[in-house]
Amino acid sequence: VETKTTASVDDICTEVGELHNLMLAAHRLAGQIDQLAKHGPMRKQAGCDDKTGELIDPLKEKASNPHYDPLGFRVGKPPGPDVAKVLTRTADECRAAIDVQQAARKIAISRSKIEEAINNIKGAVMIAYPMNLPEHDIIRTMLEGKDDVQAACPKEAVDPKSCVIWFARKKMDRKEKLSKYCGKNEKMFLKVRLQTKNQRMPQREARLDKDAQTKMMQYWHKKNEEDKRLKEQEEEDDYLNSDWANPKAYKAALQGMKGIRFR
Fold first, then answer.
1. What is the DSSP secondary structure assignment for residue 195, as one 8-state letter?
2. Which tens digit of pLDDT belongs to each residue from 75-119?
3. Half-sphere exposure (Cβ direction) of 82: Cα atoms closer than 13 Å
4. Which of 52, 40, 45 is closest to 79 using CA atoms?
5. Could you tell me how far CA 263 lies from the centroid of its own chain?
6. Which candidate, 23, 22, 15, places its Cα nearest to that of 161?
7. Quick one: which of 133, 246, 252, 253 could link to 140 by a disulfide (CB 3.0–4.6 Å)?
């Protein structure tokens, strides 16, 4: 999120909380669009026929329908392959708009880009289903703005009006300005942690990221294997350091020179 040091922490917390919830909703929507492209609209009740309400035999359904949903949530009648590609492409674009790796590239995640990606998904759904999806389909509920992300993701979503952000192991007071915690340099990059009001101080992050840890583990494993190989070679040639393998040991013993070392 791009902001200024003169902004209040309260406004920043609200903006970050709303953006976080929007990213969660977009991620859920993109996942449902992938399922729509593969298995078609949702059933009224999972595992039951919409017309008769009877349970569906999964083995028979799987044998007769190549687009059968193994979870039983969808009817197994996807749109055409060309339209399915459009749905999948818009879902991928939505995931790209909320990719957290953008922060590592110093690219701010924009609310307008996420909303634009959601609108593109909405257009693709209207192309695939001009008469709209059934009312019980979760995708229609999401696109109409009737889905409550805080109720759907209670452990991940936050309340924008009461959430807090942590920086440098300190909770930012919503009544203060941002400049109180980071100074007045407008070009700095802050890494903060968003949490609910009642949560404790977040755990300190690892000093090394996952990529660095993976490289260190690979180096350690390679070094360990090399040490084992060298140790095996040393054990094979260890007899050369024994006294009985010394060709001059008998002569030194007769001359009384055994055990004498020169420095």
1. E
2. 888 899 999 999 999 999 999 999 988 877 888 888 899 999 999
3. 1
4. 40
5. 63
6. 15
7. 133
Q: For residues 25 and 145, is the Cβ–Cβ distance under 8 A?
A: no
Type of residue at 27: H
Query: Phi-psi region for residue 85, left (φ > 0), alpha (ψ -120 to 50) or beta?
Result: alpha
How many other β-carbons are positioned within 10 Å of the β-carbon of residue 140? 19
Return d(Cα 116, Cα 139) in angstroms, integer: 16
CA distance 34 to 71: 14
Query: How many residues are there in the chain?
Result: 263
Token representation of residue 30: 């993109």
Cα–Cα dist 148/154, whole Å: 10
| Per-residue pLDDT tens digits for 8-50 | 999 999 999 999 999 999 999 999 999 999 999 988 888 787 7
Instruction: Using CB atoms within 10 Å of the CB of residue 23, give its burial: 0 to 12 exposed, 13 to 18 middle, 19+ buried.
Output: buried
- Which residues are within 8 A (CB) of 247 and not within 5 positions of it... i.e. 6 or more apart? none
> E strands along the chain, which residues?
164-167, 170-171, 193-195
The answer to whether the beta carbons of residues 201 and 167 sit under 8 Å apart is no
